Amino acid sequence: MMRVVALILAVILATPATAQDPVPDTLDWRGYYPLGVGNVWEYNGVESPSLTHRSIVGDTLADGRHYYVLDTTIPVPRGPLVYRHYVRYDSSGGLVVLTDVTADSSDVPDTECDEARTWDKLHECVAFRSDFRDTLYARAPWDTYFVSGGYGGTVLGVDVAAIKCFHIPCCWSMCYAANIGWTEGGSLEYYWLTYARVGGQEYGTRRYTSIEPRRDPETRSAMLHPNPAYDYATLTIRLDGPKMVRASLFDLLGRQIQTFVDGFYPPSRHEFFLDTSLLPAGVYFVRLSTGGWVETRSLIVAR
Q: What is the pLDDT of residues 177-227, one digit of tens each?
């Protein structure tokens, strides 16, 4: 809590007393939020649970746009909470972050930074193209959104090319390091980077360890093969008791393609055929439900 109070005071005191000329930022603005499959970030926070793990688990195309699939995992005692978003760069120098790509109706969303933001819209006004010392809007001395930082700096003991921070003096700040990404920020809920793996380079010490999800003992023999699949795949399960079984295929965007199993089955070994001959190559997910238990298996379709 003391860290949060100190942050708020520091940000309030950081409001420029006199206008300064912006310092041009000549770096590639995309480096402040590097999107690449396999990139990982971990953050500590002042709230419990204190660990947040973020990873880019894949990428995909939809309506001609290139999205990265970003999973945010929060470990809790009853099992990890996982939130999935689809992220892409936009032409205004920021990011589009969505839970459903069908909601992506504009190439440049509401990210203009020349007017005040409501509290739930602050994150939309992180314009990485901005220069150091830019003032993004200023209706009054106490209502200023500005950019600080500059070339150089250190993150987790490693020298970086630049650090850029966005501030609203009363209560909000976010900082990003070139070629690493978001390093710290927030408001009353404040987070700071403790580990990153970006472009194969590691920073800090990793804390999160993924755990294989528990499986229903009555369906623990479930298998999906061949994987990768070409023209077909077979889902094989063994039921130790009578069960309602449902299996559905989803694409990487979370859209349901088909349900290929839906019925009540007696205790025995069962094989279910999935035709993949007409599917484009890529990563898919099979969601298997047996009674009140649900698990998901990944399936690669190759060509």
A: 999 999 998 877 788 999 999 998 999 999 887 654 444 444 445 788 888
User: Residue 170 to residues 3, 4, 7, 8, 188: CA-CA distances in angstroms?
Assistant: 15, 12, 10, 7, 11
Report phi then psi at 296, rounded to 5.
-125, 135
> What is the band of 114 on the pLDDT scale with cuts at 50, 70, 90?
low
Q: Which two tokens stand for residue 161?
A: 């090319």
Q: How does 111-149 read in b/e, with b if 16+ C-beta sit within 10 Å?
A: bebeeebeeeebebbbbbebebbbbbbeeeeeebbbbbb
272 within 8 A of 261, measured Cβ to Cβ: yes
Q: Which of 39, 72, 66 is nearest to 53 (CA)?
A: 72
The pTM score is 0.63
